[in-house]
Design a protein that fits this description.
The protein has helices at 10-22, 46-51, 75-81, 107-121, 163-177, 194-212; strands at 7-8, 64-66, 88-92, 126-130, 141-144, 151-155. It has 229 residues and is of the alpha/beta class. The protein has two domains: 7-92, no CATH class; 107-212, no CATH class. Strand 5 and strand 6 (151-155) form a beta hairpin.
């Protein structure tokens, strides 16, 4: 099969490459993407928000446009993309610049991305409540206490409509409360979209790292009568 075109989002390739290289579980041996020089990686994007645990920015960008000036592409990137005549090199852009929602993010995605942004800035000022049995099955509530500055988020897997928003909810439940049991399902959460698929890989890897680092002691006390010779 001949590939007619391709699209490259450099920071997505960069951050997912960092994950694949350090992944402990990587069961299916995902190939490490070709690295893009960090000098070409834009800052403060939705991809970095998902992948960088030290995300320092007050906001994130999610719109992209094709960078037509091929002379601005990294040399190795240009060599590879030029193999395919319809290739695109996508860079962050504003709506006025013709930026598009390339990842097709929806309302629940933005809601939980904002919650994730709050967590990145100050995890102690965020309380995420699994409200499966306490709120309407179609609603998510975000309440900020003006006095304490603490944000309360009432949500559940049932109240979120998109794969990525559910995964962010699972990620925060785990990193805030070591709650991994919500992921106890025979299926996967991802809807096969690019962001959701890669973020679920990261989530599974976090679970795996946590489980393998749990303390198991073999210093077992037994009565003399039950000990072997």
């Amino acid at each position: 099969m001949i590939i007619a075109n391709s699209q490259l989002i450099p920071e997505f390739q960069y951050w997912f490459s960092q994950f694949v290289k350090t992944s402990l579980v990587n069961k299916y041996e995902i190939p490490i993407p070709v690295e893009v020089d960090p000098a070409f990686i834009p800052k403060g994007t939705v991809v970095e928000l998902l992948c960088n645990e030290n995300f320092p920015y007050d906001d994130y960008t999610y719109l992209y446009k094709n960078e037509d000036r091929r002379q601005c592409w990294p040399t190795l990137t240009a060599q590879r993309l030029n193999i395919y005549p319809g290739s695109q090199y996508l860079v962050p852009a504003t709506e006025a610049e013709g930026g598009t929602n390339i990842f097709n993010l929806q309302a629940d995605d933005f809601l939980m991305l904002d919650v994730l942004l709050a967590y990145r800035h100050d995890s102690t000022a965020l309380i995420l409540v699994d409200a499966t049995a306490t709120i309407d099955a179609t609603s998510v509530e975000v309440i900020t206490d003006a006095t304490t500055g603490i944000t309360y988020v009432y949500a559940s897997l049932d109240t979120l409509d998109t794969a990525l928003s559910k995964e962010i909810f699972l990620y925060l439940q785990f990193h805030l409360y070591d709650n991994w049991e919500l992921y106890n399902t025979p299926g996967i959460v991802s809807d096969c979209s690019l962001l959701a698929t890669c973020f679920e890989f990261k989530l599974i890897d976090d679970y795996f790292s946590y489980m393998t680092n749990r303390d198991v002691s073999f210093d077992i006390d037994c009565d003399d009568e039950t000990q072997g010779d």
